[in-house]
Write a structure and sequence with these properties.
Blueprint: E1 4-13, E2 17-21, E3 24-34, E4 42-48, H1 50-59, E5 65-77, E6 80-92
Antiparallel strand pairs: 1-3, 1-5, 2-3, 3-4, 5-6
């Protein structure tokens, strides 16, 4: 199966849905991403699970540019078909770039003053 991904801007977060099933409490939240495409540029993804819902709004805000990796699922109920875009990874734009950390410059021949070498 191929990997599905979309890059765009988070337009809005929909209200959190919750309930109880035979397996216990559950939470689900949907969010809308808009791409730069001329047609079919809105995608409504959902996140399932209390921890994932909490992390969604903790690390992402409306207006953030993100890349969403997702699965597509479809189910039938009473002769109607329902399709879900289930997000499983959300990366902020540029998040796959390694962070550059500048090292402190020490002149050649000198050791830092707090050097506690045993020899």
């Amino acid at each position: 199966m191929s990997e599905f991904k979309v890059t765009g801007v988070i337009e809005k977060f929909l209200p959190i849905e919750s309930g109880t099933s035979k397996n216990g409490e559950w939470k689900k939240q949907s969010f809308v991403v808009k791409t730069n495409e001329q047609y079919n540029n809105l995608y409504c993804f959902n996140i399932f699970g209390a921890e994932k819902v909490e992390n969604l709004t903790k690390y992402n805000k409306s207006g953030d540019t993100v890349t969403v990796k997702f699965n597509i699922s479809c189910r039938e109920y009473d002769g109607k078909y329902y399709t879900d875009l289930s997000a499983w990874r959300i990366d902020k734009d540029g998040a796959d770039q390694p962070e550059v950390v500048e090292a402190e410059e020490v002149p050649v021949g000198e050791l830092p003053k707090d050097d506690n070498l045993p020899f």
